[in-house]
Fold this protein.
Amino acid sequence: MSPILASGELILVFRWLHEKLVSTGLSPLWVELITYTVLAVGMFALLAVIALFLVWWERKISAHIQQRFGPMRVGWHGWYQTIMDAIKLLQKEDVRVDTRDRGVFFWAPVICFVAAFAAYVVIPFGDGLIVADLNIGILYVMAVTTFTIISLLMAGWGSNNKYALLGGMRSAAQVVSYEVPMILSILTVVLFAGSLSMGQIVASQQGHGIFNWFIFRVPFGPLAFITYLITATAESNRTPFDIPEAEQELVAGYNVEYSGMKFAMFFLAEFVNMFTVSAIATTLFLGGWNGPFMPSWIWFLLKTLGVVFILMIFRWTFPRLRVDQLMEFAWKFLVPLTFANLILAAWMKYAKWYW
Amino acid sequence: MGLWKDIKNLFVGMRITSKHLGRRAITIQYPEEKWTMPERSRGIVVLLSDKETGELNCTACMLCMKACPTGAIRIVAPRDEATKKRDLKSFDLDFGLCCFCGLCEEACNFSALKMAAKYEFSTINKDDLTWDVKKLQEIGRDVDYVDTRKKKAEPKPAVKPAVTDTPVATAPAPAAQSEQKGETS
């Protein structure tokens, strides 16, 4: 048995399948291969559904904010509009520019997609519903999601298009800048949870109703949550910080030259990223899957979709920042603020001024 | 202080968008629900029929054809030498040419033609945009109009004081209508 399986923090179906396969007498290698493949496919399907739902939801919310209906034609209130869009994109011709950098152009959407999905190894969807409770969970998430920058840069470079390259460069600059305050605000939580493991962080927020959630641990908790939310918006390249794909300046940003399914991969990865940052916000600040009366995974989904909703309201309310303002905001405001917050939290931890 | 004001403004903006989120959409889902057009809107040109007999009001005077700036109306009506009257053989209206100016309606003295509040005449074939008498009459069956045909018979001075400024006399309509009603009852 692998050490991950021994931790007993696996999805129940996965564990059941694993035991079944062991009892048939297959070699351990095959057992591992089959179970992990099944789990990976399952997670992929779940996240694809979530991403498609989020696209539809975003369109609906944006429409209703502008007093339109949004998609209404296919199904009840157009509920499978995004599925049809995905099918359309699958059928489309894969247009490739002659001057592209072949390898880079091909691998950019793949890396973007993989980076977006890989974070879900350590996201706790519910009580025990976690693929692998790594002891470096949150560090792993930060490391893996940062691959998105590389993929955007690759897309910009590989397209051999000035707009795409500008978009890629901007996104790299932006995400690298906002990574710093993001990690600083996450560190505040890690400091109090005393662990990088997602399971441990959730466990440390149990008890005392909702008052043990990190968002309610005044004063550093709310501040860290707000700074995290701002940086998360920047990380997922959404509107107040969407200069990588500023339509008015850059046509469409790094994905100008992409079409068909490659474009769809960027598009879906963006929404998966949005769900990822919301799921991390839930896990770190909103008590994870903790909640009374209902199954834990419902609580997790409710909280995460709530955060997603806030991000969507952000997007359809705020105007875009200018590039220099964006950098100023990150380095001159957020970094000092989160640093001060971290020092305050560390001092409170040392003085035991917390519960 | 500026910072706090800015932060407050962020919430003001979000409150406005959230408020709009709860409102009803003003979109009209076109094929299912339709806007009731204003009564005087200039839509399809229809040929009007007499309310009692169902015959066309058109006397083939060709004033509308001459008034039409784009030549959308084509009337074929040879004059019968015996009765000195024109016989309406065909009345073709090409909506591909029509610019919906309403001059034909103004030119018509016999309540034979009106721009109705209808607008759905799109086709996938541009030849179908040319409508003949039957089609124009059929769509005009349920169009309500004020019959001013008897106006010529009435003494003109009776209605003149009411409309001193406007050269196009549409005002005598109510008077004429009341007269007509009196006759029929």
Notes: The longest helix of chain A spans residues 28-65. Residues 1-9 of chain A have pLDDT under 50 and may be disordered. The interface with chain B takes residues 61, 63-69, 72, 313-314, 316-318 of chain A (CB under 8 Å).
